[in-house]
Amino acid sequence: MAQLDAFSALLDYPMYVVTAETGGERAGCLVGFASQCSIRPPRFAVWLSTANRTFRVARGATHLAVHLLHREQGEVARLFGGETGDEIDKFERITWRPGPGGAPVLPGTCAWFVGRVHSRIDGGDHVAFLLDPVEASPPAPGRPPLVMFSDVAGLSPGHPA
């Protein structure tokens, strides 16, 4: 629908790196569709493309980790948004540690949290993972500049179209 495209073209939202682990298999991708969606109880939803390897791993995951990147972390955004885990191990190229449920946590990011997967909602070519937060990074000082959609708009996705 052209009207929605025109509406969406005006938006500039934060980008997130979402990571998952299932049976020793790790995956992660750059995500733009995500938001806090409840205050009580606190909940956050991330939408993963069904074409993405991270979606295939996340389907079996009990927890996902959601990370905000500092604007200076463009290299991390390009790694998780422009490469596919079908071809490379992204986690060999970045510092990480296992979090709750095995979800890979990237401690060098601005902020992160790990959420237990409460439910999944089919939205078409993306599936929402509704998360109950169980662990989070310490608060970032101030309000650091984040990687936004406009910073990665020209990035070609690593997964197949």
Automatic annotation (TrEMBL):
Keywords: Oxidoreductase. Residues 8-155 form the Flavin reductase like domain. InterPro entries: Flavin_Rdtase-like_dom (IPR002563), NADH-dep_flavin_reductase (IPR050268), Split_barrel_FMN-bd (IPR012349). The keyword DNA-binding does not apply. It holds the Pfam family Flavin_Reduct. PANTHER family: FLAVIN REDUCTASE (PTHR30466), POSSIBLE OXIDOREDUCTASE (PTHR30466:SF15). This is Flavin reductase family protein. It comes from Streptomyces gobitricini.
